[in-house]
Design brief:
By secondary structure, this protein is α/β, with parallel strands linked by helices. It has one domain: Spore Coat Polysaccharide Biosynthesis Protein SpsA, Chain A (Alpha-Beta Complex), CATH 3.90.550.10. The chain is 37% helix and 23% strand. It contains nine helices and eleven strands. The strands form two sheets. Strands 1, 2, 3, 4, 5, 6, 9, 10 and 11 form a nine-stranded mixed sheet that branches. A two-stranded antiparallel sheet has the order 7-8. Helix 1 packs parallel to helix 2 and helix 6 (217-235) packs across helix 8. The longest helix is centred in the C-terminal third of the chain and has 19 residues, at 217-235. It is globular. The model has no long low-confidence stretch (mean pLDDT 95).
């Protein structure tokens, strides 16, 4: 069987200190990749200048520089579209990979139903378990020493099939500027009949120094709550689950009237964007049963 072409995408925004720490290490740890793409989302620091200097040493480093900030999802989608790989590695700029982090994932793609493989972040070696509780699609980390299914593959430390990523429309722009894009895509992939895996041998260090620290805690919490509600409304179709969501929304508003702002914001987003791209094969209940 012909070996797949592999692209590595590193997304960044004003992340020069992180690029200095991690970008060359990513290039060195990715010999399987035909190209390393730095997807810069209109940085105002010297990230591009730094990358151009590194390009002199590593010719397979390519730079995509946006003039206007697009947000994580759009930046990633554009980079995937411009990549040449059959398989695409998605990395945040605060990821430092171990040797072999790509090679240990490749065996899983002999199964055409595998959408992607999430890497094991050292110190947080877990896969994501889906479950339903309190009117929402919930998730929690679970540990394992063996390959395991996962609710989603991380948008910042995983490898995916480019064609399936594009088939499902990539990261949904409704969640801009950030949060929940990879969870949403994972659920749509499961619903479309694909499998998502977590591989403990694909090890990376996640320094958790992302651009999120540049935003206020109140804004982060607001976006997180809005997107959690959006994810439930956009992806859940089971009548009993949707009924429980309505009941718990009622009690959320009673316990904290400010939650009305979250509901209104979610409804406003839904009016602005088209329906999610999904090719239904599994029901919500069938997906949830996989994670019991």
């Amino acid at each position: 069987m012909k070996s797949p072409k592999i692209s590595v995408i590193v997304t960044t925004w004003n992340g020069l200190p992180l690029l200095k720490k991690n970008l060359e290490a990513i290039i060195v740890a990715s010999p399987e990749a035909q190209e390393i793409i730095l997807a810069d989302d209109a940085s105002e620091d010297e990230s591009i200048q730094f990358a151009k200097e590194l390009q002199k040493k590593y010719s397979k480093l390519k730079i995509i520089a946006h003039k206007n900030n697009q947000g994580f999802g759009a930046n990633s989608n554009d980079a995937v579209d411009q990549s040449q790989g059959d398989l695409v590695v998605l990395l945040n700029n605060d990821i430092y990979p171990d040797k072999g982090y790509i090679s240990h994932s490749l065996k899983h793609f002999s199964d055409p139903s595998v959408f992607g493989v999430s890497f094991a972040e050292r110190g947080h070696e877990n896969w994501a378990r889906f479950f339903w509780k309190n009117g929402y699609l919930q998730h929690e980390p679970q540990t394992s020493t063996k390959t395991h299914i996962s609710g989603w593959v991380s948008g910042g430390s995983s490898i995916i099939r480019k064609d399936l990523f594009q088939k499902l429309g990539g990261f949904d722009p409704i969640y801009a500027p950030f949060y929940t894009e990879d969870l949403d895509l994972g659920y749509r992939a499961w619903k479309s009949g694909y499998t998502l895996l977590w591989e403990p041998k694909c090890v990376v260090e996640h320094h958790h120094e992302t651009t999120m620290s540049k935003f206020s805690p109140n804004l982060l919490n607001y976006v997180k709550e809005r997107n959690r509600l959006l994810n439930t409304w956009r992806n859940i179709t089971d009548p009993s689950l949707l009924s429980s969501n309505k009941i718990f929304l009622f009690f959320r508003v009673l316990s904290g009237p400010n939650y009305i702002k979250i509901i209104r914001a979610a409804k406003k987003q839904i009016k602005k964007y088209p329906l999610p791209i999904v090719f239904p094969k599994l029901t919500d209940q069938e997906i949830l049963r996989k994670f019991l």
